[in-house]
Amino acid sequence: MIDTTTTSRSPTARLPRRLSAENRREQIMQAAARLFTERGFEGVSMADLSSHLQTSRATIYTYFPSTEAILDALFQERLCALQAQLSPHVRGGQPAYREIMALMQSEQDTVRLLNSGGGPQFCEQRQRFVNVIRSWLLAEAPAPLPEREWLLDLVIQFLLTAANQQVTGPAQPTQWLVLEQFIDGGIEAVRKSAP
Fold first, then answer.
1. What is the DSSP secondary-structure string of 148-177?
2. Could you tell me if residue 91 is left (phi over 0), alpha (psi between -120 and 50 degrees) or otherwise beta?
3. Three-state SS for 1?
4. Of 130, 58, 82, which is closest to residue 122 (Cα–Cα)?
5. For the whole model, what pTM was predicted?
6. What is the top-level taxon of the source organism (predicted)?
């Protein structure tokens, strides 16, 4: 006798409701981000993504022509969010270094995504992301050159290495104090060495 309980639907089982185009696109992007960070960008195909989402490849291709296009959309989304979050900390008077570093630390999903691939296409897209952030911070941060560029490089390096160091949880206040003193000492050294 064949067991039909595993092959037929129970009368109370619900079919997944239809998602709007915007929600489906977001669902694809979030699933891709999760797979990229778990397996590495180069280790994820459109077939993997369709299997993970339990949908057809055709559905995914309706929204994105390739995994590279999904990555580009993810970077664009994260870039806009990061700029919005950083903006209050870099405009006006002295940049709030502690808040900037805390924000970078809280952006674990973004830093993991930035460190999830090593192939040429991935590296090119990551470099574009970093260049946009750097250019934007240069335009927004009020500190004069050359210390502004030095600080930006520090912030960007923190962003790119935090995921590799598996930074988890908020830093202790004494850690931020040490980091702030290090930054202040670096600024003073740059000012003294400038002609």
1. HHHHHHHHHHHHHHHTTTT--SPPPHHHHH
2. beta
3. coil
4. 130
5. 0.70
6. Bacteria
